[in-house]
Amino acid sequence: MNAHLYIEGGESKEDQIRCREGFSNLITKMGLVGRMPRLSACGGRGSAFDDFKTAHANRKGHDYVAMLVDSEDPVVGDIEKTWVHLKRRDNWDKPNGAEDDQVLFMTTCMETWIVADRSTLSEHYGHKLQLKALPPLDNLESRNRHELHDALVHASRNCSNTYSKGKRSFEVLAKIAPDELKLYLPSFVRIDRILKEKC
Question: Which three-class secondary structure string do you get for the chain?
């Protein structure tokens, strides 16, 4: 069986390469060495959905096709009911034959994952990082995406490599530890389980 993930991220060609590298490093650390799904960085969230729909319609046999996107808002209710969230929030219709496990959420955004791994953040940014400016680790997936992004920018503002989306965000993503994320993020635990089942 082949597996292919369509990922939200990377507006430019250069950032799409960095996006794939960042997610590839993370997935490898999840224990999927030798079972790495093919990764496509699609740019915006809508583009990831469009690419997913095309791939889903054309998949062969038992191939696993999924999209990895920001949930944008906290997921209310059952985190397994991904298409319910997408219908409610974005009015996206589930393609015929698609399953909930074909939607993998960064809840609410990639910054949630980055904020969850304080050890890697401290190592990446050094002593000028202000950890106290970051939100508490409990209930991180219930936090607004703008709050998380702004907290990262604020906490790293005195560092030479202040946090920003694109190159710098993918550099940090490539370093984060899956085991740290699993401690705090139920949606990441779900992704870990699904990828290990499907890849």
Answer: CCEEEEECECCCHHHHHHHHHHHHHHHHHCCCCCCCCEEEECECHHHHHHHHHHHHHHCCCCCEEEEEEECCCCCCCCCCCHHHHHHHHHCCCCCCCCCHHHEEEECCCHHHHHHHCHHHHHHHHCCCCCHHHCCCCCCHHHCCHHHHHHHHHHHCCCCCCCCCCCHHHHHHHCCCCHHHHHHHCHHHHHHHHHHHHHC
Give the pLDDT score at 61: 87
pLDDT at 11: 86
pLDDT, tens digit (0-9, with 9 covering 90-100), for 153-176: 999 999 999 999 988 999 999 999
Cβ neighbours of residue 186 closer than 8 Å, sequence gap 6 or more? 79, 141
Peptide bond into 28 cis (omega under 30): no
Q: In whole angstroms, what is the distance from residue 179 CA to residue 182 CA?
A: 5
